[in-house]
Design a protein that fits this description.
single chain; about 280 residues; alpha/beta; 10 helices
């Protein structure tokens, strides 16, 4: 089959991190939406990949191993998606485990901050919403605050309370960029900068990020993704051309009701970009 004709989605989440559907259900939704090549990329986890791969195989859908690794760079959180790696690689698995380790204490501190702002019980409310007790995240808190009637939707929670510059956010020191790229490459995978349009860096900071990422062996950048506007997609297509990045495409699907794009529903990459999957077929 012509790779340019394939519907490829290389970024989404399950209950193993902050999605609302188990890996097998995400696989079935991707297949029903016409996805031909699919990666599950849960945050700092590979625990859902076996189930995802088994279901994809049953459906006749090509599966790519993935994870979205949390990185602290220049005082902000950046996400690096690893694709096509050996999910049993001990260095990668142990690195992800260390990256997850601080989330429990962070969650308690977020609950305390929200209680101080007049929203008590958020920590206790978020815990049951997390399928993985090691990965209680801001998204789980946001879902609880919506359920409890404090905000109309998850995006409002992030805009008012849990975004990076908001009073309920508790910063974390995640993995380094060098660690994340090294773990992915050491496991035979390809490192991709996720949704660059979400990061609040200056032009010079972005240039430094891209330069360092390339020097470390990073290869790709998400151009078409659920959180990018058409203008941002055009901008990062230009970045891919300028830096020689491979281009990736992924919905960043979490939920049928929360996500800005459904699985497989994104426009294609620009024809002149070399896709991250260029040598997979």
């Amino acid at each position: 089959m012509d790779p340019t004709a394939l519907n490829i989605d290389l970024h989404c989440h399950s209950t193993v991190s902050d999605g609302i559907m188990p890996p097998a259900e995400v696989a079935r939704r991707a297949h029903a939406n016409g996805v031909d090549v699919w990666a599950l990329t849960d945050h700092d986890e590979v625990g859902g990949l076996a189930e995802a791969q088994a279901t994809a195989r049953e459906l006749g859908m090509r599966f790519v191993t993935g994870s979205e690794i949390s990185v602290t760079w220049c005082g902000q959180t950046v996400h690096i998606v690893g694709l096509g790696f050996d999910a049993s690689n001990a260095t990668l698995v142990n690195g992800l485990r260390r990256t997850r380790a601080g989330r429990a204490e962070r969650a308690r501190r977020m609950g305390d901050r929200l209680a101080e702002m007049g929203m008590p019980g958020a920590y206790e409310g978020a815990i049951p919403l997390a399928g993985n007790p090691e990965l209680v995240s801001r998204t789980h808190f946001a879902r609880y605050l919506v359920q409890a009637g404090y905000c109309p939707d998850v995006q409002t929670v992030f805009n008012k309370f849990l975004g990076d510059d908001c009073p309920g956010h508790v910063p974390m020191q995640w993995a380094t960029l060098s660690d994340a790229v090294g773990w992915i490459r050491g496991a035979g995978g390809r490192a991709v900068i996720a949704h660059p349009g979400r990061y609040k860096y200056s032009i010079l900071q972005f240039q430094a990020l891209f330069d360092e990422f390339l020097q470390l062996g990073g290869e790709g950048i998400e151009v078409v993704t659920g959180s990018h506007t058409p203008d941002e997609a055009r901008h990062y297509a230009g970045v891919a051309r300028r830096y020689g990045f491979l281009a990736s495409r992924g919905s960043d699907f979490h939920s049928p009701t929360e996500s800005k794009a459904d699985l497989g529903a994104l426009p294609p990459l620009p024809d002149d970009l070399k896709p991250v999957w260029h040598d997979w077929f």
